[in-house]
Protein: AcrR family transcriptional regulator
Amino acid sequence: MPFHQPSKPRARRPATEARPYHHGDLRRVLIDAALQLAAEGAEVSVREAARRAAVSPGAPFRHFPNRDALMAAAAEEAQRRFRAEIDAALREAPAADPLARFRAFGLAYLRWAMRNPAHFEIISTGRYFAHGSSPDLTRDNAELISLTEQMLVDAAEQGLLRSVDLKRIQIAGRALVYGLARMNLDGHFPRWGVGEGEIERMAEGVIDLFIAGIAKP
Structure:
């Protein structure tokens, strides 16, 4: 009797402690798994994310009750990384030159979208979930739109722009970078004679052409 009692609980404990994550990190592990699945072009589901995280199929549902909740969290993480790229580029751009900042914003957008095509797909289309269901995404997108708007207001006040139709310039700039990112995602550039190693350089040249077109000589 004295030997059998302590042996039972101790035989089970190591299996619990040997899990490859800490319980507080499970949410993060599942988000990373969802992003990885999307990057691989695989179907994203809560159960598949659980399999990648090496946990039981029911474990993730404490954090994500369904696929939409998981994808919303994955999109918010992708948006956070996207925003970090934008913020880093703007820190390097001259504060007193709004057109240089507008250019830096566009280049950072494209650079991130081209290097992270699956994550760009998550935050830019409704393929994975309804974007309006995430207040964080809605708020951050509104902030980015306001940021580009302010750059153009500052450029107009400094007399740097050919046109005073700032809304049209803003939408044209958005269409340009989004269109280039989408062309890359859909694999269009080779048919236009642009090799894989040339895409970012070509995109930079297109943005420079746009800036030259809206700027006063």
Notes: Residues 1-23 have pLDDT under 50 and may be disordered. The CA atoms of residues 28 and 51 lie 14 Å apart. The longest helix spans residues 67-92.
